[in-house]
Write a structure and sequence with these properties.
This protein is an all-beta fold. Helices cover 0% and strands 48% of the residues. It contains no helices and 6 strands. The radius of gyration is 11 Å and the shape is globular.
């Protein structure tokens, strides 16, 4: 949780994490790219990036400005 924004890993094994405005419940970004259930999702210290870890044993870093994988 960072302010009014939260990351919600899907519980269906789809490998998707939703970046949601907690006040309005609006989905701001849909982060898709893992093969298997996401086990951890955390916002970075500035709230501009997120880090996810899934059953595929891959750690991904996402840009929350556009939902793309960060480089």
């Amino acid at each position: 949780r960072s302010g009014a924004r939260v990351l919600l890993p899907g519980d269906d094994g789809s490998g998707v994490v939703l970046f949601v405005d907690a006040t309005t419940a609006e989905v701001r970004q849909r982060l898709a790219g893992h093969a298997g259930a996401v086990r951890r999702a955390r916002l970075g210290p500035t709230g501009a990036r997120a880090v996810t870890y899934a059953e595929d044993r891959v750690v991904r870093v996402w840009s929350l400005t556009d939902g793309a994988l960060a480089t």
